[in-house]
From TrEMBL:
Class in the EC hierarchy, top level: isomerase
The protein's name in its UniProt record: DNA helicase RecQ
GO BP, one annotated term: DNA replication
Organism whose genome encodes this protein: Xylophilus rhododendri
Gene Ontology CC annotation, any one: cytoplasm
Boundaries of every Helicase ATP-binding domain copy: 33-209
Catalytic activity, EC: 5.6.2.4
Domain of life: Bacteria
UniProt entry keywords in alphabetical sequence: ATP-binding, DNA damage, DNA recombination, DNA repair, DNA-binding, Helicase, Hydrolase, Isomerase, Metal-binding, Nucleotide-binding, Zinc
Transmembrane segments: none
Cofactor(s) required, per the database record: Zn(2+); Mg(2+)
């Protein structure tokens, strides 16, 4: 049965109650809806679970009821479109999708209904939107004044700085050029300042009002541990804190996904692998089981997660370090969408950093891009190395000031810190003198052997036992020195040159540390691994 526009209220508040069954808008939803309904462009930054969908669905319904026609929703994932359209159907909204799962006749039928004004919202993939056929359809709608709104979901996909770049999104600049009078709303759950600027530029949203919600997810408890025996650390974490819960374990490679799923299964957990190398049908089956059954642990690459709306994921673990804070935030954000307590747990080590850096250095990208990626990796490293509130650091990265949260590992269990300034200066000056005297660089192992005074063959061969810093850090363990090196990398006072056998290279920021102007604070746990008290009681 068709809706009769004249008799239905186009008031957003009425639509919220009558169509969606909610009493009140949340956060900035009302402002956003009103802005869009009155014809303004908007860029909405709201965390996962914040309620982005209503920000365009309510306007789409209101505009349709007010006789302004159809809204076009650009969405990158077929699964996501299907879920959304299904939910809208249940709410009695005339929504459809156009994508590769439809045959020709189905497509024709929907196009016909669009032209006859029988559809309120149509979801399309970005690649469909820029086809001549679809543009012609849009032209017709525009010419008869029945093109109400463009909504661009997951807008960060337009940015190559983001973690999920989709080249098809680039063509969306056509919306502004071809339909300058049709309002646009772009939405994303993640965008640091660089990505945000990129979205604005690429989508031509210079005049859009920006709605930036708090990115805090107070129910998520962040914890980052130093890698020692990562598999055992992860097992202990799951068995102690989430023995029967659903969770996701992110791994860097397909091989690692498989190994991890096996290990967890062997330990009696209910784990499944998920990565792009698996058959589509296997992936689908595992995803379905994860959504439907209780207590499944999904071991996955980052191929898993986008568009998966499971409210009761109780933990997200990273056994390998992600590429940057945006990725970390996005992936950990899949925990606790129901607002109940959830854990974001990550293990990291120097090898991860070296690995990620090598991937950046060896990528075919341009130097500017690589530089940006290195900066982002460093920011994540600084978060991992932080001895103060993780949440303050995390939100700070997104430009949001906050107070210590009381719900992260560092707040709950303030780490003991020790002053590594002196060791840092000795390490840096060793690197400096070798490069100056011998014109070559060395990796972390050699530098640490020198300051610890270990007369290895390689140390003697290069005459490094003659350096003035030889043996000056004899009292420190390798683990402690590794911690100092990591911290130096985190604060940008040291770089790893992956193109030259991972040799250590000084930077502009090294000088201040060498001069003792910048203190280097480290977690004492690096030297004395004391087991954390169990949090079972919480
Ligand atoms: P996002 O896309 O930002 O991750 P969703 O749009 O999927 O978030 O919304 C997350 C959940 O919050 C959904 O279950 C949605 O129905 C619910 N929700 C959104 N807005 C409201 C509201 N104003 N009142 C009650 N529930 C809401
Ligand atoms: Zn905190």
């Amino acid at each position: 049965a068709l809706q009769a526009p004249a008799t239905l209220s186009s008031d957003p508040q009425d639509i919220l109650q009558e169509v969606f069954g909610y009493d009140a808008f949340r956060g900035e939803q009302q402002d956003i809806v009103e802005h869009v309904c009155s014809g303004g462009d908007a860029l909405v930054l709201m965390p996962t679970g914040g309620g982005k969908s209503l920000c365009y669905q309510v306007p789409a319904i209101a505009l349709q009821r007010a006789g302004q026609g159809i809204s076009i929703v650009v969405s990158p994932l077929i699964a996501l479109m299907h879920d959304q359209v299904g939910a809208l159907h249940e709410a009695g909204v005339a929504a459809e999708f156009l994508n590769s799962t439809l045959d020709w006749n189905q497509t024709l039928a929907i196009e016909g209904r669009m032209q006859r004004g029988e559809i309120t919202m149509v979801y399309v993939a970005p690649e469909r939107l820029s086809t001549p056929r679809f543009l012609e359809l849009l032209d017709g709608l525009r010419d008869s004044g029945r093109l109400a709104l463009f909504a661009i979901d997951e807008a960060h996909c337009v940015s190559q700085w983001g973690h999920d770049f989709r080249p098809e999104y680039r063509s969306l600049s056509i919306l502004h050029e071809r339909y300058p009078t049709v309002p646009r709303i772009a939405l994303t759950a993640t965008a640091d300042t660089l990505t945000r600027a990129d979205i604005v530029e690429r989508l031509r949203l210079e005049d859009a009002r920006q709605f930036v919600s708090s990115f805090d997810r107070p129910n998520i408890r962040y914890a980052i541990v130093e890698k020692k025996d990562p598999t055992q650390q992860l097992l202990r974490f799951i068995q102690n804190e989430h023995p029967e819960d659903a969770g996701v374990v992110y791994c860097q490679s397909r091989k690692r996904v498989e190994e991890m799923a096996q290990t967890l299964n062997d330990a009696g957990l209910n784990a499944l692998p998920y990565h792009a190398g698996l058959d589509a049908s296997v992936r689908q089956r595992h995803q379905d089981r994860f959504l439907r059954e209780d207590g499944i642990v999904m071991c996955a690459t980052i191929a898993f997660g986008m568009g998966i709306d499971k409210p009761d994921v109780r933990f997200v673990a990273h056994i390998d370090m992600p590429k940057n804070i945006e990725g970390y935030y996005q992936e950990t954000g899949r925990a606790g969408r129901d607002g109940q307590p959830a854990d974001a747990w990550m293990a990291y080590g120097l090898a991860d950093v070296v690995n990620q850096r090598r991937m950046i250095d060896e990528s075919p990208a341009g130097e500017e891009f690589k530089q940006a990626m290195r900066g982002k990796l460093d920011a994540l490293l600084a978060l991992a190395e932080a001895t103060d509130c993780r949440r303050v650091r995390l939100l700070g990265y997104f430009g949001e000031p906050s107070q210590p949260c009381g719900n992260c590992d560092n707040c709950l269990n303030p780490p003991e810190v020790w002053d590594g300034t002196d060791a840092a200066r000795k390490l840096l000056s060793t690197i400096y003198w070798i490069r100056k005297q011998q014109g070559i660089g060395f990796g972390a192992g050699q530098i640490m052997d020198i300051v610890r005074g270990k007369p290895t063959e390689k140390v003697l061969q290069h005459g490094h036992d003659k350096l003035s810093t030889y043996g000056l850090c004899a009292e420190l363990s390798e683990a402690q020195l590794r911690g100092v090196l990591r911290q130096l990398i985190a604060i940008g006072a040291l770089q790893v040159d992956a193109a030259a056998f991972n040799t250590l290279v000084l930077t502009d920021a090294s000088r201040a540390v060498l001069k003792g102007e910048v203190p280097v604070q480290l977690r004492a746990s690096i030297s004395s691994p004391t087991p954390r008290a169990s949090r079972k009681e919480r």
